[in-house]
Amino acid sequence: MGAGPAEVLPVLAVLVVIVGLFLPGVDLPTSTHESRARVRLTPQLMLLGTLCALAFLIEDGLLSWSAIHLERTLGGNEIVGGLGPGVLAGSMVAGRALTQAVSRRFSERQLIGASGLFGTAGATVFALTSSASLGLAGIALTGLAISVVAPLIFGVAGRVGGPGRQASSIARVSTIAYFGFVVGPALVGGVAGAASLPVGLLVMTAAALLLAAGSRLMPV
């Protein structure tokens, strides 16, 4: 609508401060039975962390590059570009809201395998389409697919850790997983610089395929 960073960012800053002022009044449950023993980084936890890192790579790759692709490659305006991260966030909220319901009918291995396959389809559509509307549909499908990965993997990590060590196991897995956030945007940008942005975005297609394949190795 014509507003620049000088108008937009102070409004966001005020909103963040307002939210922060309410947080001290939120009571969070604490565990009194958590074991203080360190959890060893087992191959199972390393695998779970790597699978989650692939999902985070896709998520942050889309967050960082979707608006640029929609505007520069697909010819959308600033409003269309802004819809990229927004559609991703909305689809992930919807997917995570449905995670508990679908996990009653399918195993984690099945759901994460399906997540990788649907994420592959969505990421491929987004990277290769010439239509901004189809690009947004690809983002929505990818976000909906990968949204289930982190909650499911953290749940499995807690069970692998055993009673009293769930939090420590999840911390080990999440430490590995967040490398996906660090690597994702830079990897997409590096490939885009060497070839083109659509080719760079296919990095996320490859990550989704690896996620689908790696789900077969998950502990049951």
Span between termini: 51 Å
> In one word, what is the shape?
globular
* SSE class: mainly alpha
> How do the SSEs run, as a string of H and E?
HHHHHHHHH
Number of alpha- plus pi-helical segments:
9
Taking pLDDT < 50 over at least 5 consecutive residues as the criterion, the unreliable ranges are: none
Helix percentage: over 70%
The count of strands amounts to: 0
User: C-alpha Rg, in Å?
Assistant: 19 Å
**pLDDT averaged residue by residue:** 91
The largest β sheet comes out as: none
Q: Into which percentage range does the β-strand content fall?
A: under 5%
Q: What order do the helices and strands come in, and which of them pair?
A:
Layout: H1 5-22, H2 43-73, H3 78-103, H4 108-128, H5 132-146, H6 149-161, H7 166-177, H8 179-194, H9 197-214
How would you characterize the overall build of this protein?
The chain is mainly alpha-helical and 220 residues long. The protein has helices at 5-22, 43-73, 78-103, 108-128, 132-146, 149-161, 166-177, 179-194, 197-214. Helix 3 (78-103) runs parallel beside helix 5 (132-146). It has 9 helices and no strands.
